[in-house]
């Protein structure tokens, strides 16, 4: 069910334990080979497929995806359109408040952009405390700097942006927008000199994408394939459908 297709009375009639699913994308540079829509396409496509796959006894509704989010790490590149952290925080909190007014008590963010994660976690708690919603935050694929395993050995655990995984997903979802002839490996191997500081290590670091070079992506898209992207989607969609089911019945006591 798409929120945008419903009337107010149909929304008012949704069960109170309906899970509202909100895809979070981004409008940001993804290197020379991928469009700025990459994270938005991935989040909205996988969320829509998962909502469609949820069993009919689990009430859920798909909200329109949010494309403008927190992409300040890509500020140096044309095409990145981002909200300040406090603007995005206020936006997510306002969405939570509006859902409460609509009688919705469960909200699941499906995040396609790693740069939103820290803020999204804070927003989940803020919306929980202020409006009483049960809030959840998940990803179609866990980013490698947030505990994910990564998808290509050549990335050395540093495929955080526009690398093998995202490029493969776009080759599957929107091949018309991928420029594989421009794909080059950009793995910041210098980070292997540091044991404790790095992506996914015990000490994180504040970065912007121009810290790693002029191309904008961080990873190795050269081995990306539509087949890998298709297999990823075929794993992610049922897993996300299960997450929606758990968000529907989740309790803490
Ligand atoms: Zn991305």
Describe this structure in words.
This protein has 253 residues and is α/β, with parallel strands linked by helices. The protein has helices spanning 8-12, 38-53, 85-101, 117-131, 164-173, 226-249, and strands at residues 19-24, 60-62, 106-111, 134-138. Strands 2-1-3-4 form a four-stranded parallel beta sheet, with helices on both faces. Helix 4 links the parallel strand 3 and strand 4 (134-138). Zinc ion is lined by residues 30, 38-39, 113, 161, 166. Zinc ion binds next to helix 2.
Can you tell me the overall shape? Answer: globular
Helix/strand order, N-terminal first: HEHEHEHEHH
Oligomer: single chain
Q: List each distinct ligand once.
A: zinc ion
Strand percentage: 5-15%
Measured distance between first and last alpha carbons: 30 Å
Radius of gyration: 18 Å
Number of helices: 6
In helices, the fraction of residues equals 25-40%
Structural class: alpha/beta
């Amino acid at each position: 069910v798409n929120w945008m297709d419903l009337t107010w009375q149909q929304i008012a009639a949704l069960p109170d334990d309906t899970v509202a699913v909100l895809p979070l994308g981004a409008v940001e540079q993804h290197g020379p080979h991928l469009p700025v829509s990459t994270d938005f396409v991935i989040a909205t496509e996988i969320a829509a497929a998962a909502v469609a796959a949820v069993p009919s006894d689990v009430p859920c509704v798909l909200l329109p995806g949010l494309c403008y989010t927190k992409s300040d790490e890509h500020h140096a590149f044309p095409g990145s359109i981002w909200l300040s952290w406090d603007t995005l925080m206020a936006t997510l909190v306002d969405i939570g408040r509006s859902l409460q007014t609509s009688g919705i008590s469960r909200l699941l963010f499906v995040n396609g952009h790693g740069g939103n994660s820290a803020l999204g976690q804070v927003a989940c708690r803020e919306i929980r405390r202020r409006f009483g919603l049960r809030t959840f935050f998940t990803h179609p694929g866990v980013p490698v700097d947030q505990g994910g395993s990564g998808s290509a050995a050549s990335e050395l655990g540093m495929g955080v942006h526009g690398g093998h995984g995202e490029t493969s997903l776009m080759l599957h979802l929107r091949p018309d927008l991928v420029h594989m002839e421009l794909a080059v490996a950009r793995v910041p191997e210098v980070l292997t000199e540091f044991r404790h500081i790095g992506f996914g290590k015990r000490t994180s670091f504040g970065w912007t994408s121009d810290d790693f070079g002029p191309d904008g992506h961080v990873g190795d898209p050269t081995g990306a394939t539509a087949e890998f992207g298709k297999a990823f989607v075929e794993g992610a969609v049922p897993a996300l459908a299960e997450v929606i089911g758990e968000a529907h019945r989740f309790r803490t006591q």
